[in-house]
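Pasting two entries for a bug report.
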Amino acid sequence: MRLFKAVIDAAQPRAKRHIIWDEQLPGFGLRIEPSGAKVFLVRYRGEGGGRNAPQRQATIGRYGVVTLAQASKKAEEILAAATLGGDPVGERNAKRREIRVTELIDRYEEEGCVVQRGLRQGEPMKPNTKAFTLARLRNHVVPLLGSRRASEITEGDIERLFRDVAAGKTAKDEKSGKKRGRLIVRGGDGAARKVVRDLSAVFSFAQRRRIVSANPVAKASVRKTDKRRERFLTLEEVQRLGRALDELGTEGARGLDKTGRPLPTTNAKALDITRLWLLTGCRRNEISSLEWRSVDLERGLLVFDDTKTGRSIRPLAAPAVFLLKDLQGRAEIGARYVFPAERGSGFFAGVKSIWPEVVRRACLPGVTPHMLRHTVGEQAVAQGESLLLVGSVLGHANARSTAIYAHVAHDPARLAADRATAGIAAALGFAGALTTG
């Protein structure tokens, strides 16, 4: 029958739901539930129609919320699109099934966490790298874009994400699931750049899996790298740092609690780790987690089988060998780590609690452990060392630094390490161990 308001109002519920179809607009109907609820719907065959075409049905709205005129107009639009070969209901259902950003990140964790560039391109990320990457994505991206469909993210969304993270909108400091632990998330420009870089990798993965057609990060107007010159220490600043380490060693190296008060624990391992950062130019965890099997004191080398950049051989300057020999003489027989943890079987990880006191005493606000590595590289360049030898000292993973492992003897590299760290070693007080031997 023809659907009029009077017909709709007079329609009564039955034991089972039933549909009254409109004779003037085929495919448009009113469904009446046993409860008495009346709902407008539309039904058609997709793919241009035909006996074998899939049947589609969509709810338009409940009578009383949607008027007859509104419902019939919507039905006309859907049926017209279907007649012209479209499938509006199928497209809407497909849209509803589209993966959202938070689900895409979960899938990236399962299938896509691989190194994007360099010698290890395509290989799985290191556990720590993977953990930090996913933490940034979940702490910054999910709160801002997690509920959005991945295919709907635009360049503008990426630019807004960058601004919001840089402004600290995702920053938080709250209790974590661990006993007495806290989850501290900081924003800022540096965090925003890393988050955008990580999200670009996620969308590249999604593009390869045909989940999205393009990577919105690629065309976004955001600064993905920090072009500023890195901070490094002058020799006068290294002297101040050395005096601070000596003072803390004399007093007993103590960390600071959250209120800035000294902790009762005394441990000199953090001081020796800091000295080795400066004397080797190694990355932070390469020294903190250093194992004795990686130390070759006879040849003056550190041999890392599996680092951030793969297998790496680093020449040791004489002062670093001197310090490591001293530590070896005091190490327990059979010890795995150069700096073992106070409890358990792991390595010592307490430098971060002592570092703020070190830089405070040295009057070096804002200085980070990574700047010590950069200081070694800067000193090497200042001494006139070639970039190949500087790369060998620092273990850089690029074509020039990689070539040194195959074509340059280790002795010249050790001499380069001596020259690079001579000023640093003197500033730290290693005057008696300044030559390789």
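Entry 2 (this is the one that rendered wrong in the viewer):
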Amino acid sequence: MPDLSDDQRELLLDALAEHTQRNARPFVAERIIEANEVYFPDAFRRDAESLATIAARMIVYAGLDDCTVDVTLDSAAGDSRAMLPRTRIELAGVEDQVVFFSCLELGQKKDAVLCLAHEVARAALLVRQLEGQDGPYRATSRRTELVAPADTDEERINASVYASYLGLGVLSAQGSHEYRQAGRMQGQVPVSEWQHVRYGGLDPEDTSYLLAVQLVVRAVDGTRLDRLLAPLSDERQSEVRAEMRKLDRETLIERLGLPPIETWPKEVPAKADEIEDEEE
């Protein structure tokens, strides 16, 4: 398992601190979103409507409450007969409070969620930049012409850091790399497919570190920690836990320029916790 250098850890903290110093709330209080039926309960039919529903939920989770979504689906995007159909969704741009996405390939629901987590983070970062670096959280763009993202490696890396800041870190870590395998019988011949899936601009070790930072800052442990990490691959889980053991909460809070803990807004409870409370 590759290990991050201390220099890379510092670079990631620098990038994260640019956001936490401006407004700590998303990082310390907003929900940490999970790729499950609790957060994305709608039926999925591999069509534009289903994809738009997921995107609409995701932009709210990312703080773009006043925005709407527009999804363009390629005519053949959902027609793949592969055992492991791929997903390719791109942010096209933002115009007058509408976030535009283009989908060329569409696989399963989980892939749509993981891919959109990164693309929505790109949108949220673009909106913030359009409104000015010091604009308030949940600001929205009112530009009357489509503004596209820079679409550079730097822009995608920054968006992946921003995803973690917004509470999409579990999705970012989960989507940073997954290895999948499927098989079936074609007549009497066994056929197998393999696939490496990667969404976002950061390496898996980077997303694991950023997630570990947020979990330590929020003092997440016990069954909640187990639940948040459960969807990740064994390798990602090991990375996150290993990084958490190296981190000190007070040091991180100072490093990220966060205000004193006693001044933090009350953390929004995870939806899964709300459901458990209702059942008790």
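Dev reply: Rendering is fixed now. As a check, the viewer should reflect this: The CA atoms of residues 93 and 149 lie 6 Å apart.
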